Amino acid sequence: MKPIRRKRRMVLLWALTVSLLFSCTGCLSSTPLSRQSIVQAIGIDYENGAYTLSFQIFSPSESGGSNIGASADNAKQITSTGKTVSEAMANSVLVQGKRMFTGQNRVIVIGKAAAEQGLLSALGYFGGDPSTSRNAQVLFSQTTASEILGAKGNQGILPAEMLEQIAENAGQHGKIPNAKLFEVLKAADEDDKGILLPVIAQIPQDSQSESSAEQIDPVSAVHLTQAAAFTKDGFFCGIFDEEESRGALWLLNDMHHTKLTISVPKQYTAALELYEVNTTLSPILEEDNISFHLTISCRASLTETVLMDSSAAHLTEDIAARAQALIADECDAAWTRASALSTDLFRLKDHIMQKDTARYEQIKSMFDETLSDCLLTTSVTVTIDRYGKEYLPFS
Amino acid sequence: MFESVKGRIDALKQAMTENKPQPQPNEHRLTGSLPDDMVTLRAMFSNSSDFLTREITIAGVPAAFLMIEGMVNLQTMSEMLLEPLLSHRFPAHAKPQDICDYIENRTVLAADTIHVYSCEQVFRMIMSGFVVLLIDKIPYACAYGMQGFSFRSVSEPSAEVNELGSREGFTEPLRINMSMVRRRIKSPSLKFDLFPVGRVSQTDICLIYMTDRVSKSLLRQLKRKLSSISLDVVLTSGYLKPFLSGTPWSLFPDVSTTERPDVLCAKIQEGRVAILIDGTPFALVVPCLFTENFQSLDDYAHSAFYASFVRIIKYVSFFVSILLPGIYVAVSTFHPELLPHALLFNIAAAEETTPFPIGIEALIIHFLYEIMREAGLRLPRPIGHAVSIVGALVIGDAAVTAGLIGAPMVMIVATTAIASFVVPPLYEAISVLRFFFILVGMSLGLYGIILFSLVLFVNVCAKTSFGIPITAPVSPFSLSAMRDTFIRLSFRTLQKKTASIERLNGVSISASEKESTSNTNTDPSNHS
Amino acid sequence: MNANARTHRISAPQLLMLLFLSRMFSVLNISPVFGTLQSGMTLLLGTLISFFLQCAFLFPLWLLSRRYPGKTLIGCAGDAGGEWLKKGAALLFLLMFFIQICGSLSAFSFFMTAIVFPKASSILLLIPFFLVLILCVRWGLESFSRAAAIFFWLFLLSTASICLCAIPNTDLLNITPLPTQGAFGGIFSAALGEISKNGELYCLLLLYPSLRTPQKAVHSGFWFLLLTCVFMLVTQTVILSVLSDFGMEQTYPYYALASVVDLSVLQRLDSFHMSLWIVCAFFRSLLYVFLFKKCLGTFVIKKKARAVLFYSLAVLLFFGSVFLADHPQVVRALNTSTAIVPTLLAFVFPLVLFILLKRKEKRNETNSPQKTHGALMGADR
Q: Are residues A197 and A327 in the same domain?
């Protein structure tokens, strides 16, 4: 190799080495794991003109080590306050001295007071923060979020992982709609439709049942059976009860797998498992009015039947008919509730836009107010073609 | 009829004579005078005590046998050379040429006589274990291969262990290795080119190639590089490697090494050139591709699906061994959101008690591991076990219990170490690169890891081995060669097209040779 | 052609993969229409239309590569109009590459400091990147083309995994249809936006002599455009169907998509996106720096002097990138003002050159039968 070329390469090599060493000086400001608090759940409350954030953090030095569960005591709750959520986040470092790491955050609970200030006010910070997970479950508490995050577990507080799993299971089994952070932000940004958030509440404990035999299992200290409705501007406007929440799932085409219980007094009680659900919501655009037709077709498995009356003639058809009626009732209940709240919670405008863009542009500004004039017709088909593990030839 | 047979024998003899090495201009030609030549030769050997001379008279003609003590099989010499000569009744006034003719035509050694014409050639022959016969008035000497020096027998190679392949490996003597190759390829196009390297050691090396498959330009380049070596001694293949490699400081080899004759045969039939070196069982093969490091002979002994599975494991192990520690450090330090919850909690719990940052921990433990590995290599076997005990107890248990390092880090080191042994030819590169990746991971996170990987990739892609990019056949892509790269297809498929190193340049070297008839500088590794 | 030189050329697929990775830099980075998107369908149709429009840009390339396979566009300019046109063209390309490199690096550092390392300084991130570029450009076109051919498949695999993981979240209802008014204008402006960002079109005109068979440059170009179009359509469809218009209004829509999908134990796939984007930024910057260096060869023939000039200008490039990283509004202004330049450089200018060359050849044929040979541009590598 010529000396000049070798010299040039040596210079380049040294320059690279020096620059690499230079960048090793920590100028990229990394924080070691031991100086970060791993946030698993965030609660947002609003009181006295300030936001109060509750953080459920993982504390490995406590009992339970790295195991997460209701029997471990390594989930801790801390709070911080600020005029805005950003300020509260910044103040959290002052409270406990470690940087808040929200990259593993699973659950965000919004208290009622904070929800009344608007979803974007509460969640806007997390939407802009690149480290926060966009797949965090967003839940609504009718009381305060800190109460939910502080719900008691076996030894410590109920971990966020459990809250997340309860919410996911409830959604997967067709109880309540699920809402992830990015979906909430998307709905808030789109500005023309509302959104439903699952409502999380503590199960009230009977104060007289304090003996160990009757003690309520602390794992089920919270439940999700209702949904909270928010307007297109992101403000809380009402609650959907259990039936209405299920109806909302049908209308949103979010029902994939669920169980129905058909109970006819003095005759039978049957359990149906709907394992294949197809839902289509079609707008019918007439000159004067707009209506919607909901078509639901399901395939079901009859998993359990308790006969009280010995005559079981045409039992399967009867069960199917009653299931169809039940589903239709749920849909009607949800529709009525949404109309009462004057909020498009079921993406009805999107359906209209897909069908007729010009009509959509005509009605989009006033649609929510005229929602109550829109009719919903349903046609539900439930086909029972499986009978659990046995073949029961009901005739 | 006898005349025609005799004519054919004479023609063969002449051909054999013509192929014998001719003296170089600066060498001392044999004068034909035995005393003078003996004086010259004794001076060349500096009267060394292992230089044996046996002067005899054959039918009144002075002659002398020259050999090195300990390098010749004396029994063979007595039976096949001395006894026939001394017991034969030569005519009374036999001439020296008659004696030569008798030896060359009438003895068992007739077929194995090498004529040497200079004192230097005599010197080399004797140093290689030949017995040299000098006859007065004959201007050349006759050398007979009667080597009897001690050497290691053919045994299983230690560095390349195979499950189903041959158990033979090369040994130190060059000619035994040559015979092992010749036995495996019974083709007339297989050629051996012998010549010495090393000013002092005059070590014999042998170029082996298939004349109908090798590229002429490759051969030319190789010979030019070998002739430019001016080392004093060449004791192992490692001495020659830097001269054959395009970039001496490169991490990845562009000259491959093998201890197995079957591997060598497989490579030369693809158009490569092998170099056997006297005194070492490790042969060199050029050109070398990067993907060759992941191939072994067992791949061709097992079924195609299993061989493909093992190949994929090797590639995965390679990347795991260089990237895993760096990625672990980078993710834990800069991007903990990428880790699954449970794993992150484990790591956080482990790091809670350790005094060092993860990056420093990784560097310390990898450094300790390399120290232990090197110590284990150098120690005698009885003491070597102590190293494994120290390693297991001290690092594996005590350090974790004492809170000096975290348990996940021990797992990472163990996984990395085991993965690095899956690809032995690349162990050197893996060991060095691991440290670099840890450094960039702890300073720049995944960004640094990716950037360094890109530099490494581009650097590897820039390397050529005698004009062939070492990233071939992946890039430049060759579909036919890919049948035996990441996976190995069945032999029914492989037999359809013969693999050739020549085709992996993207441009056929022989085609470019036809075009560049006047271009003398054909070394593509010389970038302008 | 010198056979030795021929062995150092790249193949047509390698060129395609290199250009594709370079183009992916802007595809993965920002939405083609800065927040003025009318609807999802507008974007998709705009992408489709832009493919057909860009195919027309291959026409001058086809003419030049068939007729003058050994000369780059600058070499042709020298033959057509003499030294002044040659140097003028080289200067224009130099300027374009300067702006493109600074813009690319600044966009890259903006992404890294906004998303990955929020507290890091852009200088500290750009220093190692820049040094790596300078190091890798020395190894020549063949080396990073080969590397691009390997990363191309990794890129496709990563993108496919992100898109496949996003499928459960897709809902075709999220893709907004065309508006009733101004649809065509929106589609056309989206298409033009794509063309303005495709600097690889004029890179083709400078790279085709480096191909082993320059006549295949058009094939590379066509497949490059087709592959880019298909990729964009697929990814934009996935982004729109998951995130609707909200996703396309993000600064980094593809990153937004990657951050909402998960794959089993991998909680977040946005790290995939970050890796892909660093790779694309690397190849794009490397390609432009290489061409920048080649253009310098028009002005300075001697290797040593060219090296000194290149390194001095590289320092200027670095500081330009740092400046633009802190002033994104300047980047936007530059992008807007230079939107027409790719059309001129990749279509109008080569077509004019071809016509001039043909005229000159005709004139020369009537004078003498000798062929004219244009000088190769600067050094080979």
A: no
Strand partners, A74: none
DSSP symbol at C118? T
From A222, A240, A258, the end of a domain falls on A240
- A297 and A393 in a single domain? The answer is yes
The residue in chain B having the minimum alpha-carbon distance to the alpha carbon of residue A130 is B337
CB contact under 8 A, C147 and B454: yes
Domain range for A382: 242-395
Q: Is B520 on the interface with C (CB under 8 A)?
A: no
**Residue A15 belongs to some domain of the structure:** no
Is residue A228 domain-shared with residue A339, that is, in the same domain? no
H/E run at residue A197: strand A195-202
Please indicate, yes or no, whether residues A69 and A193 belong to a single structural domain of this protein: yes
Residue A352 lies in a domain: yes
Shortest distance, CA A58 to any CA of chain B (angstroms): 8
Q: For B389-447, write each residue's pLDDT tens digit.
A: 777 777 677 778 888 888 889 889 999 999 999 998 899 899 999 999 999 999 889 99
Do A95 and A168 share a domain, yes or no?
A: yes
Output the tens digit of pLDDT for each of chain B's 528 residues.
666 666 666 666 665 555 555 666 777 888 888 999 999 888 888 878 888 888 888 888 888 999 988 888 888 888 888 887 778 777 777 788 888 887 777 776 656 678 888 888 898 888 888 889 998 888 888 888 888 877 788 888 887 888 888 888 999 989 899 999 999 999 999 999 988 898 888 888 999 999 998 988 899 999 999 999 999 999 998 899 888 887 766 788 889 999 999 999 999 988 999 999 999 999 999 999 999 999 988 888 889 999 999 999 999 999 999 999 999 999 998 888 888 888 888 888 888 888 888 899 999 889 988 888 888 878 777 776 677 777 777 767 777 888 888 888 988 999 999 999 999 889 989 999 999 999 999 988 999 999 999 999 999 999 888 888 899 888 888 888 888 889 888 888 887 777 777 777 655 444 444 444 334 333 333 333
Q: Are residues A163 and A208 in the same domain?
A: yes
A22 touches chain B (CB under 8 A): no
Name every chain C residue with its beta carbon within 8 A of the beta carbon of B521: 4
Chain C residues within an 8 Å CB radius of A361: 179-180
Burial of A19 (0-12, 13-18, 19+ CB in 10 A): middle
Which residue in B255, B284, B120 sits closest to B196, CA to CA? Answer: B120
* Residue ending a domain, choose from A240, A270, A293: A240
Q: Model pTM?
A: 0.84
CATH number of residue A359's parent domain: 3.30.300.210
Cross-chain Cβ contact B349/A20 below 8 Å? no
Tell whether A184 and A264 lie within a shared domain: no
The domains found in chain C, sorted by start residue, are 34-358 (1.20.1740.10)
Nearest to C278, CA basis, from C129, C106, C158, C122: C129
For chains A and B, CB pairs below 8 A equal: 66
Which residues, including other chains, have CB under 8 Å from residue B205's CB and lie 6 or more apart?
A: B174, B194, B195, B196, B197, B226, B234, B240, B275, B276, B277, B278
A16/C131 Cβ within 8 A = yes
- Contact list, B470 vs chain C (CB under 8 Å): none
Beta carbons of C31 and C248 less than 8 angstroms apart: yes
Closest Cβ opposite residue C278 in set B450, B455, B506: B450
Residue C265 with chain B: CB contacts under 8 Å: 340
Q: What subunits touch chain B, counting only 3 or more CB pairs under 8 A? A: A, C
CA angle C210, C216, C218 (to 5 degrees): 105
On whether both A71 and A203 belong to a single domain, the answer is: yes
Give a yes or no: residue A295 inside a domain. yes
Q: What letter represents residue C113's amino acid?
A: T
Q: Determine whether the interchain pair B461/C150 forms a contact, defined as Cβ–Cβ distance below 8 Å.
A: yes
**What is the number of domains present in chain A?**
2
Q: Answer yes or no: are the C-beta atoms of A357 and C178 closer than 8 Å.
A: yes
Residue of chain A whose Cα is closest to the Cα of C174: A350
Distance CA B330, CA B444 (A): 8
